[in-house]
From TrEMBL:
This protein's GO CC annotations: membrane
HAMAP family hit by this protein: ATP_synth_delta_bact (MF_01416)
UniProt name for this protein: ATP synthase subunit O, mitochondrial
Entry annotated with the keyword Ion transport: yes
Coarse class of the protein's main subcellular location: membrane
NCBIfam families linked to this entry: ATP_synt_delta (TIGR01145)
Keywords for the protein's UniProt record, in alphabetical order: ATP synthesis, Hydrogen ion transport, Ion transport, Membrane, Transport
Family the UniProt entry places it in: Belongs to the ATPase delta chain family.
Domain of life: Eukaryota
GO MF: proton-transporting ATP synthase activity, rotational mechanism
Length: 221
């Protein structure tokens, strides 16, 4: 009976298979110039994850890889999130650091990630910080959004929005922000109906769940 491969090998094999499936079609991803983007992080991120995000931005800026890192991290997040087993491999603290380094490097190699991405993910794996990787990715995305002069918005709806609804909301957000808007869409059935929008430092709550809470509070008075 053949022995199962060690955890390091299994992790690398799993990353390789998932990254092959999620790899974008060659030439389909447009790389934009980073020349107009600031060399230093435009805003400051805090905490341990923030320090990693700030350092990654600075390193990528020096290599003119800011936008490629953004694409690499998006692919990494999509690839790992598509498989509960793979996501657990990334965040489970009981899995050895060496196994995670091997898995991360396999994914980076198969997806054609740039040096800045490889170094950052490798540092997280070696430092035992892969549990923070998704927070680091989100913070880096915030840095890029600010560097591009965009305003970020998170639209959370009880069910997926149709195109007409998305277009209407986007038009309103652009009018409010006076410029380009970077939107992240999420679905949360607990809202019952309606949606919430986090837009810059504003929070707009148009959910039925929130209305019910306010109604209950009035009835309790």
């Amino acid at each position: 009976r053949a022995e199962a491969p060690p955890a390091t090998t299994r992790g690398a094999m799993l990353f390789s298979r998932l990254s092959q499936a999620a790899r974008p079609v060659p030439g389909a991803l447009r790389r934009l110039s980073t020349a107009a983007l600031p060399m230093e992080p435009p805003i400051k991120m805090y905490g341990i994850s923030g320090r990693y995000a700030n350092a990654l931005y600075a390193a990528a800026a020096k290599k003119s890889e800011l936008l490629q890192v953004e694409s690499d991290l998006k692919l990494f997040k999509e690839t790992t999130s598509s498989s509960p087993t793979l996501k657990n491999f990334v965040i489970d603290p009981s899995i050895s650091r060496s196994a995670k380094v091997a898995g991360v490097m396999s994914l980076c190699a198969d997806s054609g990630a740039c040096d800045s991405t490889k170094n950052a993910l490798g540092a997280l794996a070696e430092g035992g910080r892969m549990g923070d990787v998704f927070k680091v990715i989100d913070m880096y995305s915030e840095l890029l959004t600010a560097a591009k002069g965009e305003i970020s918005a998170v639209i959370t709806s009880a069910k997926p929005l149709d195109k007409a609804q998305e277009d209407q909301i986007m038009a309103a957000l652009k009018k409010m922000g006076g410029g380009s808007v970077s939107v992240q869409k999420e679905v949360d059935p607990s809202l019952i109906a309606g949606l919430t929008i986090t837009f810059g430092d504003k929070f707009i709550d148009m959910s039925v769940a929130s209305q019910m809470k306010r109604l209950n509070a009035l009835l309790m008075d």
